[in-house]
Amino acid sequence: MIETVGMIGLGLMGLPMAKNLLQAGFGVVGCRKQTDKLAELDALGGKGLFSAREVASQSQAVISVLPTVESLYEALLGEQGVAAGAREGLILVEASTMPLKDKQAVAQGLAQAGVVTLDCPLSGTGAQAQVKDLAVYASGDRAAYEACVPLFEGFGRAHYYLGEYGAGTKMKFVANLLVAIHNISAAEAFVLGMKAGLDPQQILEVISDGAGTSRMFEVRGPLMVAGEYEPPTMKVDIWQKDMEVIGAFAKELKVPLPLFGAAAQVYTAAMADGRAKQDTASVCAVLEHMAGYERS
Fold first, then answer.
1. Cα-Cα-Cα-Cα dihedral of 74, 76, 77, 78, to 10°?
2. Secondary structure class of 63 (helix, strand, coil)
3. Per-residue model confidence as pLDDT tens digits over 205-241
4. Host H or E run for residue 239
5. Where does residue 185 fall: left (phi above 0), alpha (psi -120 to 50 degrees), or beta otherwise?
6. Dihedrals φ, ψ of 218, to 5°?
7. Is 61 within 8 Å of 116 (Cβ atoms)?
8. Could you tell me where the beta strands, DSSP code E, fall in 23-180?
9. Are 283 and 184 spatial neighbours (Cβ–Cβ below 8 Å)?
10. Which domains does the chain have, with CATH numbers?
11. Which end of the chain, N or C, is less surrounded by CB atoms within 10 Å?
12. In what order do the strands lie in the sheet with 135-138?
C-alpha cells in the first residue's frame, strides 16, 4: 500500500498535484532543481527535499513531471537521481511529455535499480491540475498500475490503462496534436468575432454552448477574453518542446500533419513576439496583430 508519494518537479503541474495528493491523505515529499517551490510544498503540509535521490529513498511511489529530456535523465538516472536512492520495488510514475525513446531508456536504467516504471503522461493544463481536472494515460506493468490507481484518483479526474509501456505517450501525442490545433482555432474564432464587433465574453458564452466549442475553447477562452496571459498554465516555450516531439514522431511514422504544421507557425510567431514565458493562449494576441486589430 502506498502511503508516501514522491514528487519530482514542483512546477505548474507538480505543485498542484502534490497539493491534491496531500488533501487525499497521502504523505508527499518532493524536490525541484530550482528550490523556490520547496517552501511552498512545506506550507501545504508536504516535505521539500533537495534531491530526487532523497525523494526516492522516502517514498513507495514517485511521480516525475519534468520539462526537458536533460532534466529527465538527471533526475531519474543521475548521481542524485531516483535510481541512486530507490528501494527494491519502487514504482516510478513518469508523467512528463518526452520522446518515446528517452522514456524507454530511463525505464531500462531504472529497472536495473529494481524500479518499476509506468509511462503515464497527463492530459490537462496547470490550471486544470489545480482543480483535479487531469486525465492519466497509463501504460506499463498492470499490477503497478493497479497499485497506483489511488494516486491517480488523488490528483486526477480520470485514468486509462492503455497497455504496454509507451502506449500512454503515443496517446498523449494524439491528444496534444488536437490541443495544439484547437487552441489556435479558438484564437482565430475570437479574433474574427472581435474584429467583426462582437463582445469577446459573449463569444465565449455563446460558442461554449454550441456545436463549435472545444475543451481548449472553454479552458483557454477566458484568458483570450481577458487578454491576460500571465501567470501561464502552459508556457509557450515548453509547448514548443512538445510540438517538436510530436512532429518528430509523426515524421518517423511518415504521417502528414498539415493542420498541425500550420498551427506550429503561430506558436513560432508567439516565440518571436517575446511571448515564450506567457500562456499558450497568447497566440490570440499574435493573431490580433496579424489581423491589424487592436482592442479598445
1. 40
2. strand
3. 999 999 999 999 999 999 999 999 999 999 999 999 9
4. helix 236-253
5. alpha
6. -80, -35
7. no
8. 27-31, 47-48, 61-64, 91-94, 116-119, 122-123, 135-138, 158-161
9. yes
10. 4-165 (3.40.50.720), 170-290 (1.10.1040.10)
11. C
12. 122-123, 135-138, 158-161
User: In the structure, what pLDDT confidence band is assigned to residue 262 with cuts at 50, 70 and 90?
Assistant: very high
Task: Label residue 226 exposed, middle or buried (CB < 10 Å: 0-12, 13-18, 19+).
Answer: exposed
First to last CA, the chain: 57
Helix axes 215-226, 167-195, angle to 10 degrees: 50
115-171 per-position pLDDT tens digit: 999 999 999 999 999 999 999 999 999 999 999 999 999 999 999 999 999 999 999
Residue 124's closest CA among 218, 3, 210? 218
Per-residue pLDDT tens over the stretch 36-57: 899 999 999 999 999 999 999 9
Nine-digit cell string for 193: 468575432
Nearest-10 crossing angle of helices 100-111, 69-77: 10
Rounded to whole angstroms, the Cα distance separating 10 from 168 reads 22
Q: Which residues contact 28 (CB under 8 A, 6 or more apart)?
A: 4, 5, 6, 7, 18, 21, 22, 41, 44, 45, 46, 47
Rounded to 5 degrees, φ, ψ at 237 are -70, -35
* Residue 2, CB-side half-sphere exposure with 13 Å CA sphere: 30
**CB neighbour list of residue 253: distance below 8 Å, 6 or more residues apart:** none
Is 31:38 a contact under the CB 8 Å cutoff? yes
Length of the chain in terms of residues written: 296
